[in-house]
Amino acid sequence: MKNIRTYELISLLTKAISEQNQQMVNMYAYELTTRLYVPDTGYTFDEILEGFGYRSLEADLNQITIEEYMRTRERGNE
C-alpha cells in the first residue's frame, strides 16, 4: 500500500464503497487513516477511521473450519 499515492487510495476507497465491498473499504480506510491521523487534533484515530467507512465485519457464516477444509482436500485427492 505504501507505493499507492493518497489520491489513488481515496479513489480506491470510493470505488470500494460504491461496490459495497466492506473488506476493501476497511483496508483502504485504515491505510488512509494511518496517513492522515495527527494526535491531539480533536478527533481520535477510531473516529477518523469510522468516518472513512470502516466497519467491523461480522463472522462469515459460510466460513469453514480447517478440519473441514482438509477433509475436502483429502476427498479430492482420492
What attributes characterize this protein structure?
mainly alpha; 78 residues; 59% helix
Helix content percent band? 55-70%
According to DSSP, the number of beta strands is: 0
Largest sheet: none
Distance between the termini: 41 Å
Unreliable stretches covering 5 or more consecutive residues: none
Order of helices and strands: HHHH
Q: Mean of the pLDDT scores?
A: 86
Please tell me how large the radius of gyration is: 18 Å
Look at the helices and sheets and give the structural class: mainly alpha
Count of domains = 1
Output the number of helix runs: 4
Our estimate of the beta-strand percent is under 5%
Note the overall shape: elongated
Helix-strand layout with pairing:
Blueprint: H1 6-18, H2 22-36, H3 45-51, H4 66-76
Helix pairs in contact: 1-2, 2-3
Task: Give a brief outline of the structure.
By secondary structure, the protein is an all-alpha fold.
What does this structure look like?
With 78 residues, this protein is an all-alpha fold. It has one domain (6-76). It has 4 helices and no strands. It is elongated.
